[in-house]
TrEMBL record, chain A:
Protein name, UniProt field: Unannotated protein
Cofactor field: thiamine diphosphate
Molecular functions per Gene Ontology: oxidoreductase activity
InterPro entries: THDP-binding, Transketo_C/PFOR_II, Transketolase-like_Pyr-bd, Transketolase_C
Boundaries of every Transketolase-like pyrimidine-binding domain copy: 4-179
CDD domains, sorted: TPP_PYR_E1-PDHc-beta_like (cd07036)
The keyword Hydrolase appears for this protein: no
Keywords: Oxidoreductase, Thiamine pyrophosphate
Regions annotated as coiled coil: none
Originating species: freshwater metagenome
A Pfam family hit: Transket_pyr
Automatic annotation (TrEMBL), chain B:
Protein name in the entry: Unannotated protein
GO function terms (MF aspect): oxidoreductase activity, acting on the aldehyde or oxo group of donors, disulfide as acceptor
Short name of one Pfam family: E1_dh
Keyword annotations: Oxidoreductase
Residue stretches making up the Dehydrogenase E1 component domain: 38-309
GO term, biological process aspect, one: branched-chain amino acid catabolic process
Signal peptide, first to last residue: none
InterPro entries reported for this sequence: Alpha-ketoacid_DH_E1_comp, DH_E1, PdhA/BkdA, THDP-binding
Amino acid sequence: MSELTMVKAINAGLRKAMERDPKVILFGQDIGRLGGVFRVTDGLQKDFGEHRVMDAPLAESGIIGTAVGLAMRGYRPVLEIQFDGFVYPGFDQIVSQVAKFHRRMAGSIVMPITIRIPYGGGIGAVEHHSESPEAYFAHTAGLRVLTPADPQAAFLTIQQAIACNDPVIYFEPKRRYWDKGEVDESLAALDLSAVADPWRARVVHTGSDVTVACYGPMVRTCLEAAEASTDISLEVVDMQSISPLDLETLASSVERTSRLVVVHEASKSGGVGAEIAARISEKCFYSLEAPVIRVTGFDVPYPASRLEEYFLPDLDRVIEAAEQVMRY
Amino acid sequence: MAEDRVRAVQLLTPEGQRVSHPDYDITLSDSELRGLYRDMVVVRRIDTEATALQRQGELGLWAPCLGQEAAQVGSARAMAPNDFAFPTFREHGVTWCRGIAPLEILALFRGVTNGGWDPQVNKCGPYSIVIGAQVLHGVGYAMGIQFDGAEDVAVTYFGDGAMAQGDVNEAFVFAASFSAPVVFFCQNNQWAISQPRDRQSNVQIYERAAGFGFPGVQVDGNDILAVMAVTKVALERARTGNGPTLIEAYTYRMGAHTTSDDPTRYRLAGELETWRLRDPIERLKVYLARQGIADRSFFDQIEQEGEELAEHIRDGVRAMVPPRPESMFDDVYAEPHARIDEQRSEMLEYLSSFQDSVG
Ligand SMILES: Cc1ncc(C[n+]2csc(CCOP(=O)(O)OP(=O)(O)O)c2C)c(N)n1
Ligand SMILES: [Mg+2]
């Protein structure tokens, strides 16, 4: 076991994936000598060479579009988009090509592309550097969407995302990049699918009154709320996989608590929370004692950084929502 | 790097020597020359002050334009009042020349706003952070000028890194196709964060224009006279219905990419030393002094002016408070919107619940 930040944990996971499979290549802006603006790929170019860790020209559509061709050629590209707000120039290639290629080729070609995107707010950044665009991708058939909440999960799921034969949009919660946690690197030697299923949600805090579904950066926030909530007992479920959603794990929690609050940073309307709420209403209609409540960012462009604390769900807003569902 | 294919137009050598060029020349009055010097000194002072304020935690981030003052001031001062500038986040010299108050710029980097000035007033668009996006906007604006039968020109600013972006290449296609009155002003400061120019362009940047069907010219971006001369020709070309020009201002990013960046990880200190000898301000200063256009008291006076502005900026930035939280619901839509109203009320109600419990 070693104590690692999430940055170091993803770095270690990338390293394992590259050691395991020579077809794994990294492609992105400033990921080589600089090691990426967050240093997630630090040292990898030095150790694996310029042909496996490649600095890309400044063009997201180019990075993603060429990855399709590389995948057709048998490579397993792991792409870095520098910030959430810069994925959109590559959106067409992701939605129309990466997501649909396998189907269009009647299954004869796989698209084992992993697109890593640091996402979310809370770091005091300028415009376009704090967005949570996961719903666009979760809405797209053919894509899988994963987001780790802590270093151990990041270490494992990045390797599983890379090993997956489907394209995976891998959202890294940048405000949690520097959080430290215990990471068992020896697990990489095992059959990873036997260690933990990345597509399953995880109950990360048990409780009895209200289930709180969350993912990525909000997991820590919700855990803090669970610790702080003395009157109401919160059960925190880290969804981890945003697409597909593991509704079985969530529903079995909701069947016990009868109440659900969903938390994410992204804007409310048309967000992942809406999907979770609808599906849980279908599945758990007879168990629910209250409507599903969402605690989210507002339906506005991400605000200037000095206002972000008012946009982002925090401990107080989570507890207030729990109180609200308890009043039914 | 193909240094041998550098063909930069130069009118003032790094040593401050006035030289001639077969195709380009410029005649400026003494007071115009002193004005250009003043602009560059003041812009540099704003820039260094902003870097200092970021270090003190007063700004979230700063993108320094250190070393690029001649490229920015020279091109922006060549523009007519009704021409329209489309800047990126590093164009503090351009916004200065367009009359945008420095504190408006600093407000962005302090994080109290994501926007601000009305582009119509100073004919200057917002800072574009998404690389290349504003170049297409500039072409569209130029098409509008053309449809209106007006004689204005759009000037789009972008970097060497942006040369790779699809939007920029599409902008070239549209501008050529419509013969739009636009000037593409690319500051090749040699780096796009950690990437050298040749990662984006295997030929000199100005050479790319030929393939799109319009002229490209490379200018010594640290020579304000040459930058102004070349920009004036491109503006005139556009104004008289002859279409776009790509100007490559060959310069250097003397500072870090932003205050979050550590350039020692990817570039050698020697490079910086080479470019320090080509400083844009120093060479104009030598020229002005040698020609007797400006003397010691003028230089002192400008320095003093810079200090006063720096103090104004310091005080102004420290006094900037975040806007009301509910202002995030302002201007999301131009027409009334029920969901926005509902969420604004929710926020206000939530915030007032704290007020109650405290008071
Ligand atoms: C679409 C997009 N992708 C990535 C980024 C991140 N980024 C910000 S500046 C920059 C480099 C820009 O280089 P260049 O165009 O040469 O301008 P300079 O920074 O040198 O002024 C990058 C990659 C961005 N802002 N927008
Ligand atoms: Mg550059």
